[in-house]
Amino acid sequence: MAKILDEQYYDLIFNNTVLPQTAADDDITPMNERESILHVYRGDTTDMCMIGRYLYHNFPTIYTLCSLISLQQSGIQSVQLNPYLSLFGQGTLIGIIDTGIDYQHPAFLNRDGTTRIVSIWDQTIQNGPAPGNFGYGTEYNADSINYALRSANPLSTVPTVDENGHGTAVASIAAGNTDTVNNFSGVVPDAGLVVVKLKEAKQNIRELFLVPDNVTCYQETDLLLGIRYLIETADFMNRPISICFALGNSLNGHDGEGSMSDYLDYLIQNPWIGISCCAGNEGNARRHYYSNITNAPYSEEFELRVGNEDHMFSMEIWPNAPAVLTIEVVSPTGETTQMIYPRIMECVPYSFTRSSSELWVNNILLEQESGNQCILIRIRNPVEGVWIFRVSNINSEDFSYHAWLPSGNLISGGTYFLQSSPDTTITSPGNAKHLITVTAYNQNSNSVLIESGRGYSRTGKVKPTLAAPGFELTCAAPLGSYSSYTGTGAAAAQTSGIVAMILEWAVIRGNYSQITGNDISNMLQRAAQRNEALTYPNNIWGYGMVNVNNLFDSLSL
């Protein structure tokens, strides 16, 4: 069994310059130009203080799905009906990294019944040929998919399916065929599709970060490899690609740093690569706390209500430099951990005597990717009720800090900060500097969805970038049906289709052959539709509502 599949090995992220010279070849899986996976032996049980023996940024983070068309609302239909432009994504690729795709759905078939899908890398199926240099999963190319489609039982030949439906929905919003009966069309129905079906996170990393067993989630290393697969496929075919990233993670510094953010930020500055990322749906989830302390004794406590559905979870506290904070945790029974001071590498376990609650605190003085302090708190079997967290600045001066709970379905709505803030709730990698980070609005009322993540980043970067329709968008669903989805994942999918339109105009039609995703982002920012009553950019709408028709109108002046 490959170590990337073996539960006895952690998949840790290491910079290529510091990989151990003594590591065997099968201990390392290359990911990209900057980083590789080092497979570290775990054994039969989980050591919760493994975080502390290795640096925190070595551990892959956990991603969840951005919950899931009004084409006319974004100016898309106007461009499609313009006889001069007629941009439908011809010659471009849409990259999907998600829960897979229903390849038999009519939304992804040509008129002759053949597939529009270039290839699928299913990371969950291990009995077929893996794509070159990846070492796990099975790759299905267009020939094998077409062979399956001609057979009486396609799944006996190409058994990849989308059990969840999220990937199928996202792919169809970006690039599904027109279906007048169901009042549906994707943005670029002539684009090809490259799809990665992600395997779920390893059980060992779920145990380490206290993720419940029944939750669908994915680990960063598989996503990074999936992105590389999309890029290599586009390079091999010599075609521009627009990638839709409809997953997110809240346990990070919300500063655009980290392995995923850095890699995507690098890629989008290269020619022929566009990346649209969801802003997340954490805006009204009450999972973010912020405070600015300006008075002695330069300490504060904040409260977290823990519901009875949550039996394990993690949270993070990120002070803004130059503050250096201590942390004390008080349970609803009145028991306390006492004050825990910051260290470079230390894990402090604590078992409460009046309950079965267990707690691990890593008060990390220097989180290497960002250079900031990070306090990781993991709680198992928490007592229901109000938990108190006391922070104090060792420097005895003004300070500010943020705290975040996990995103998506990693935690229930019954656990929340009593004095929460909706700002700075964009999920990773949406805070990366150059990514096209998309929030969602209700196209019927022109109001931002209350659940949409808000900016700015923790370090003040303008996020989100743009807003796109994301309320009850019609989309393909498994088994040939259609459904509707709401959220920033749907908005990001629509934007990725718009990016493909621009790639067709620029690259395929030769108007701007070396265009980058960053160029496209800047063009869309300038062409965005704005409300005269608001100031732009802002932390809710970014630069405004995406409108590709405005963009092409401005180019024709």
Automatic annotation (TrEMBL):
GO terms for molecular function: serine-type endopeptidase activity. GO terms for biological process: proteolysis. It comes from the Bacteria. It holds the Pfam family Peptidase_S8. Keywords: Hydrolase, Protease, Serine protease. Belongs to the peptidase S8 family. The lineage of its organism: Bacteria, Bacillati, Bacillota, Clostridia, Lachnospirales. This is S8 family peptidase. InterPro entries: Pep_S8_CspA-like, Pept_S8A_subtilisin_clostridia, Peptidase_S8/S53_dom, Peptidase_S8/S53_dom_sf, Peptidase_S8_Asp-AS, Peptidase_S8_His-AS, Peptidase_S8_subtilisin-like, Peptidase_S8_subtilisin-rel. Residues 89-204, 420-544 form the Peptidase S8/S53 domain.
